[in-house]
Amino acid sequence: MTARQAVSILKKSASTLPAKCTLVLHCLVKPGASKIREGISAITDEAVEMNVAAPAQDGKANKAVLQILARALLVSKSDLQIVQGMKAREKTIMLPGSALCLDATRVVAGDEEARLVEVVRNRLQSYRAD
């Protein structure tokens, strides 16, 4: 059995174009953190670890997670969707590949999926709270 990856691709068609696939993010969220520590704390092989200041009640922490990821990935909050873990610290979040602006990162078609994952990891890493 393979371990899950923090950032992976879910293909919806045989096409290798990023617009035809969906990005899957596995996150481990720690709600109720201090406002100073809010943000992405680490990116491991298995998950994107995040601290949010919002409490884990009435969906406040989920909204904060989507807001942080939207800022980090340079996408709209409405492009991100929590598909698993609405009431848990471990969350699976999906993002359509078409939502990511990759004009500056065009590569050979065979490498586009790997490049897409690399671009997302780099954006998350650069947004990391230290």
TrEMBL record:
SUPFAM superfamilies: YggU-like. It comes from the Eukaryota. Pfam families: DUF167 (PF02594). GO terms for cellular component: cytoplasm. Belongs to the UPF0235 family. This is Uncharacterized protein. It comes from Microdochium trichocladiopsis. The lineage of its organism: Eukaryota, Fungi, Dikarya, Ascomycota, Pezizomycotina.
